[in-house]
């Protein structure tokens, strides 16, 4: 249980430290989505929904841009979403590594490494 608490504490500390970047990327996705929603004449919620689905690269296809400018912005939204996702994965992996180093005996880690090598 200590491992979990260490992970949670470190994870939220890491998120706090990079929050300006996360806010910038998240806001960019939402703003670009609202620009596309105006170009495509969607309602605001559909623009928000579409930008989040595009940023996470899920892409259900139920709403899609038809105009060239909107399609270009959708590429930018997808790339921005990949950056945002990559940053979150990086923080999660680093936090897990630190928590393991703190709570798992190094000799146990070496035994596991040697077992797979």
- Distance between the first and last residues' Cα: 29 Å
Please name the CATH topology: Helix Hairpins
The total domain count is 1
- % residues in beta strands: under 5%
- What value does the average pLDDT take? 94
**Poorly predicted runs:** none
Description:
This is Potassium channel family protein. Its main location: membrane. It is found in: Membrane. 83% of the residues lie in helices and 0% in strands. Helix 2 crosses helix 3. The mean pLDDT is 94. With 117 residues, it is mainly α. It has five helices and no strands. It starts with a helix and ends with a helix. The protein has one domain: Helix Hairpins (Orthogonal Bundle).
Brief account:
With 117 residues, the protein is mainly α.
Question: How are the SSEs ordered, and which strands pair?
Answer:
Elements: H1 2-17, H2 19-40, H3 44-55, H4 68-103, H5 106-116
Helix pairs in contact: 1-4, 2-3, 2-4, 3-4
GO biological process, one term: stabilization of membrane potential
Protein name: Potassium channel family protein
Domain Potassium channel: 29-94
Identify the notable features of this structure and list them briefly.
83% helix; 117 residues; 5 helices
């Amino acid at each position: 249980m200590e491992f979990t608490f260490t992970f949670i504490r470190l994870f939220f500390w890491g998120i706090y430290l990079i929050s300006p970047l996360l806010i910038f990327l998240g806001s960019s996705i939402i703003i670009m989505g609202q620009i596309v929603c105006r170009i495509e004449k969607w309602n605001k919620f559909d623009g928000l929904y579409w930008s989040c689905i595009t940023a996470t690269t899920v892409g259900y296809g139920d709403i899609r841009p038809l105009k060239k400018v909107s399609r270009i912005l959708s590429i930018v939204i997808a790339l921005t979403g990949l950056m945002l996702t990559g940053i979150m994965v990086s923080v999660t992996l680093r936090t897990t590594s630190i928590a393991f180093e703190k709570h798992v005996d190094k000799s146990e880690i070496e035994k596991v490494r040697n077992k797979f090598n």
